[in-house]
Amino acid sequence: AITIPSFISKRYGEKKPVIMCISALVILIFFVPYVASGLAAIGKLFNSLFGWDYMVAVVIGAIVIISYTSVGGFSAVATMDLIQSIITPGIGPLNSGFNSVMRNVDCPYTT
């Protein structure tokens, strides 16, 4: 089994692909907003960092993501997720927005 729907289908010995279709539909329903939020974040990031037009940044981001996914397949996506999960916790506290929020929080535990 390569995908989650095919794993579920094989796990329960399904003859007709009913469970596989339902699980694929559920994944599709939740994946569309996930991808849309990622593209919106790319657009906002490039707009704020480089002053690019939001839609141009979204299109460029989508082209880059589609390119490395097409060339490297799922392995490229998994590698990129791993890299992001390593980098993000280290960069988060350095973010000036985070520091501004923490300076304005009136809590004895944030000194």
Seen as an oligomer or otherwise, the chain set is single chain
Largest sheet descriptor:
none
Approximate shape:
extended
Q: Overall pLDDT, averaged?
A: 80
What is the terminal-to-terminal distance? 51 Å
Order of SSEs, N→C? HHHH
Poorly predicted runs are none
Radius of gyration: 20 Å
Helix count? 4
Report the structural category. Answer: mainly alpha
Overall number of strands: 0
Strand content: under 5%
Percent helix range: over 70%
Structure description:
This protein is mainly alpha-helical and 111 residues long. It contains four helices and no strands. The chain has helices spanning 4-11, 18-50, 54-91, 96-104. Helix 1 packs antiparallel against helix 2 and helix 2 (18-50) crosses helix 3 (54-91). The model has no long low-confidence stretch (mean pLDDT 80).
Overview in brief:
This protein has 111 residues and is mainly alpha-helical. The chain has four helices and no strands.
What descriptors fit this protein?
111 residues; mainly alpha; 79% helix; extended
Task: Outline the secondary-structure elements.
Blueprint: H1 4-11, H2 18-50, H3 54-91, H4 96-104
